[in-house]
Amino acid sequence: MIKKILQxxxxxxxxxxxxxxxxxxxxxxxxxxxxxxTGGGKSLCYQVxxxxxxxxCIVISPLIALMQDQVQRLRQMGVSASAIYMGMPAGALxxxxxxxxxxxxKLLYVSPERxxxxxxxxxxxxxxxxxxxxxxxxxxxxxxxxxxxAYRKIAMxxxxxxxxxxxxxxxxxxxxxxxxxxxxxxxxxxxxxxxxVARPNLFYxxxxxENKATAISKWLQEHQGSGILYARSRRGSVEMAMQLRQTGLxxxxxxxxxxxxxxxxxxxxxxxxxxxxxxxxxxxxMGIDKSNVRVVAHYDVPESIEAYYQExxxxxxxxxxxxxLLYFNNSDIQRLQQSTxxxxxxxxxxxxxxxxxxxxxxxxxxxxxxxxFPFDAIRFIKNFGLTIQPxxxxxxxxxxxxxxxxxxxxxxxxxxxxxxxxSELSYLEQAEPALHKTAIQMLRMYGSIYHFATTIDEFDLxxxxxxxxxxxxxxxxxxxxxxxxxxxxxxxxGTIFWLHNRVKAEHLPLQLKAIATLREAHRERCEHxxxxxxxxxVCRNVLLARYFGEKDVxxxxxxxxxxxxxxxxxxxxxxxxxxxFIREQQQISIQALTSHFTGFDTERVVDLIRxxxxxxxxxxxxSGIIFSV
Length: 629
Hints:
Elements: H1 2-10, H2 19-27, E1 32-35, H3 44-52, E2 56-60, H4 64-76, E3 81-84, H5 90-101, E4 107-110, H6 118-124, E5 129-134, H7 157-160, E6 165-170, H8 175-184, E7 191-194, E8 202-208, H9 212-222, E9 227-230, H10 234-246, E10 251-254, H11 260-272, E11 277-280, E12 295-298, H12 305-312, E13 322-328, H13 330-343, H14 347-360, E14 371-374, H15 377-384, H16 388-400, E15 404-407, E16 415-418, H17 422-431, H18 433-445, E17 454-455, H19 458-465, H20 469-481, E18 485-488, E19 495-498, H21 512-534, H22 540-547, H23 560-565, H24 574-585, E20 587-589, H25 590-596, H26 602-614, E21 618-620, E22 625-628
Parallel strand pairs: 1-6, 1-7, 2-4, 2-5, 3-4, 5-6, 8-13, 9-11, 9-12, 10-11, 12-13
Antiparallel strand pairs: 14-19, 15-19, 16-17, 16-18, 20-22, 21-22
Helix pairs in contact: 2-3, 13-21, 14-16, 17-18, 18-20, 19-20, 24-26
């Protein structure tokens, strides 16, 4: 039956490795822990059982954008699915609850914070829940890279559904995190499925460079194909796109500072291209199903191996050869060493930021529980004259404490559901022909729109109608006012959802011991990342496998370390040859010098240049230019 479901809804003839075994374990009523790498098809492991059983599957997911992507895809396949998250309109919530009460829904995506709500818990007793699926299960562990306290509350669902089995899924889990997942979710004798983190088709290249932008551009020119280039900041993503365009490469930009239409357009173009590079901040790529990404490059070093592995893993999902490229320099090492202090500021500063955010929102003490506010974090920081990075990190830390939910980029999409009948549409044709035309066009473009709230693209709708987007938005508002449709416009920009009533800053209930544990875990992750960058003798795949608790993984043969082992042997007089060449040129860039010594290990050449600089035999400027002395 499960293969029939796979063919009918996904049009696949066969499951990916481990998927079928996991699905059969779930359908047999067992608790399951599945650790599958990025692109391994985790969502199918609960979606197929959801369709194979009677009743409702509740899916806990941490990111609104990911929930919306999953729901949209399922609805396009004809599956009844919805999402509930903190801050959504009451009308939309009541319609979803009604669908669940009536047994219409097969999958209901829920944020971990929402299940703590007494209102939500009151609904549970009315629902026939046959499976609880937990996505991004590593978020439950303080030793993981993305801890969220709300995940600690998920196990309370066992009280409502003691006979219902659970499946916990994640792409990464060290042995300590794996044990945390089992204990904290109270999984009963779980069947554990774990794919190796080693990707035989994905080769990791970690290189030192004083001029990272030029080095990355040169590499991408030499290795054509679709790719993603990650930068930590909006400015970095824009600057890298400009640099790539100057070298003749197609490069798009995607970051939270763009409006939703610009982001949608940029993403759509990139999805259609076979060779374009998307320069983006790290949120890009989540939930995006593009299998032919040939390279994922990092301009900035992630703060954990887990984050790096997940982001790099977006390359090569089609099983064809792909590359993960990362350039670093001494500044990156220093930033990693300093990042723990920046991410976990002193207690007085945490309380200060909490009070400032409340003042900025004009929220009185004793008010604000379960309230959603527009919140532009950068404007807030400028308003109070704060330093950007410590302030942003403190806002995130307070979020992890369960005080509020901050979405730097809400990026919610427009949803529409028809709530009228055909006779009303006939009346509309006579009374408001322009509105009738828009309504009919939506019905043509989105087949599920009569049955449940459906995500629509206002840009595509406007294009089909030959109207501008503001006009279409006004028409949708008018149709909503006439009760023809239920219209929820997209939210652009940042939001903050205040979970509890505001208290005085000195009374903010901070879990200082837990924060200390998170601080130490963060420091350890940064140290592991630094070790990964500097290690030059062990295959990158082997290093990753060891970090995640795997043994007996073979060398990949294609990473920078493996290639070095097979590279041209170093000359005994290489250092003298480098110095002689510098003196001959008088002035040369590091990039040009390393290019001259083709066939030698680039990192070794750079190390020798730095030795010469330290010995006073040459001088290196901050811009990476070497002068003869």
